[in-house]
């Protein structure tokens, strides 16, 4: 159970909550239920009850929380609970124990994105005291890091509700900049099924790696073509869609014709559905050009394709009400777009909720050893939420 004695200062509340959250090892291949239960206990002490959405395995859950009137459209603060692995990283301390040095809070997930979640939870007492006219929703998800998995069942439930939220703020690390767009992503795994033979009679086999190499070469050729067709959207730091091969596995021994090879590749597209369109075209090319040649050598050979990740691009209109509100709450007039993906595009595409991305910390710190977020950033974020509360009191 959380300590019922809340620190009098907001920074201490944020620190304590962030220390609690970091202390849960919620790498995506593990359950997040202990963390969700901890948040539920904290909220219950404050008299708030959330709606738990459990996945089909029973080992993961999202949490949807409404503070304020339930019969009016509200605004969403959204964050995920999972973090990336620490294996193989050179940390100077236990990554699942919060350490503070020189105004920086170190620990896995401090930036991406337990810092934002901690701020939102720390501000719940203020939300309750404010007597909100417009409700504030907390949307706490799981498995964002492996393809925005956990937010989808939650959004399906939200989409069924009689009253739809007015908009959503997704608190990924943007240094509190207002982000109105990001690229979509589609990832595919191609598994080449060849025919093993002793390498001394290599022509009698079907070399899965060599056919995979032809796919990789085609991916690289198409990537160069995408890079040459630069977008006019200058808000992106990489102003074109990107395509690459990221993982390759194949072969068993030097003297064996390899009978299997897997190739993982992805496209990050600027257009809403561009990433899938690009990868679909590659799959069609491989089925037309490579697979028939493999089957000609042996009919049981071929290529299997599997979707491993998919989310659309985000492209919120710069004049949208949620963007204007975000700028007002953040105290700035500019906006930007980013290459990395977030759950914001799913809020927009699955539940028709206009969304922007804005949160504390820098993306450069995400996923790194000795990940940290500056306390000053968390305090800036708390100021954003404080101004949101005032806005929601006015209705």
Distance between the termini: 34 Å
Number of helices: 11
Beta-strand content:
15-25%
pLDDT under 50 segments (min length 5)? Answer: none
Shape: elongated
Radius of gyration: 24 Å
Mean pLDDT: 95
Percent range for helical residues? 25-40%
With strands numbered from the N-terminus, the spatial order across the biggest sheet is 1-2-6-3-7-15
Q: Please report the total strand number as a whole number.
A: 16
Output the keywords.
alpha/beta; 395 residues; Bact_exopeptidase_dim_dom; 16 strands; six-stranded mixed beta sheet; 11 helices
Structure characterization notes:
- Its cofactor is Zn(2+).
- Keywords: Amino-acid biosynthesis, Arginine biosynthesis, Cobalt, Cytoplasm, Hydrolase, Metal-binding, Zinc.
- This is Acetylornithine deacetylase.
- The structure is a single chain.
- The chain is elongated and about 80 Å long.
- Helix 5 runs parallel beside helix 10 (344-351).
- The mean pLDDT is 95.
- By secondary structure, the chain is of the alpha/beta class.
- The protein has helices spanning 10-22, 33-45, 110-122, 124-129, 151-160, 208-228, 274-289, 291-297, 321-330, 344-351, 375-394; strands spanning 51-54, 61-67, 75-80, 99-101, 104-106, 136-141, 167-170, 179-182, 184-193, 242-250, 260-269, 302-311, 314-315, 336-338, 355-357, 372-374.
- The strands form four sheets. Strands 1-2-6-3-7-15 form a six-stranded mixed sheet, sandwiched between helices. A four-stranded antiparallel sheet has the order 10-11-9-12. The protein has a three-stranded antiparallel sheet with strand order 4-5-16.
């Amino acid at each position: 159970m959380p300590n019922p004695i809340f620190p009098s200062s907001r920074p201490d509340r944020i620190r304590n909550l962030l220390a609690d959250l970091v202390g849960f090892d919620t790498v995506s291949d593990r359950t997040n239920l202990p963390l969700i239960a901890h948040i539920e206990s904290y909220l219950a002490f404050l008299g708030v009850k959330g709606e738990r959405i459990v996945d089909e395995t029973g080992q993961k859950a999202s949490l949807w929380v409404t503070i304020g009137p339930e019969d009016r459209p509200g605004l969403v603060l959204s964050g995920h609970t999972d973090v990336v692995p620490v294996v193989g990283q050179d940390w100077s301390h236990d990554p699942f124990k919060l350490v503070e040095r020189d105004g920086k809070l170190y620990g896995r997930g401090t930036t991406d994105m337990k810092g934002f979640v901690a701020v939102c939870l720390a501000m719940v007492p203020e939300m309750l005291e404010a007597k909100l006219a417009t409700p504030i929703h907390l949307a706490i998800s799981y498995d964002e890091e492996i393809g925005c998995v956990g937010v989808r069942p939650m959004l399906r439930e939200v989409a069924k509700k009689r009253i739809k939220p007015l908009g959503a703020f997704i608190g990924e690390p943007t240094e509190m900049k207002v982000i109105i767009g990001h690229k979509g992503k589609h990832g595919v795994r191609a598994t080449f099924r060849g025919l093993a033979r002793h390498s001394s009679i290599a022509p009698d086999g079907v070399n899965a790696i060599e056919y995979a190499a032809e796919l990789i070469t085609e991916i690289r050729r198409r990537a160069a073509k995408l890079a040459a067709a630069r977008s006019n959207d200058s808000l992106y730091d990489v102003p074109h869609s990107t395509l690459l091969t990221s993982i390759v596995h194949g072969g068993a021994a030097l003297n064996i014709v390899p009978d299997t090879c897997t190739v993982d590749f992805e496209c990050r597209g600027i257009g809403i559905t561009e990433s899938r369109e690009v990868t679909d075209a590659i799959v069609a090319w491989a089925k037309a050009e490579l697979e028939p040649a493999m089957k000609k050598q042996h009919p049981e050979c071929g290529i299997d394709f599997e979707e491993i990740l998919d989310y659309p691009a985000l492209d919120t209109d710069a004049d949208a009400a949620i963007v204007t509100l975000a700028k007002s709450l953040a105290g700035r007039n500019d906006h930007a777009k980013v290459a990395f993906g977030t759950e914001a595009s799913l809020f927009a595409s699955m539940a028709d909720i206009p969304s922007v991305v804005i949160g504390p910390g820098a993306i450069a710190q995400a996923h790194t050893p000795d990940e940290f977020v500056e306390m000053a950033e968390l305090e800036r974020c708390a100021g954003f939420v404080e101004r949101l509360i005032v806005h929601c009191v006015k209705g």
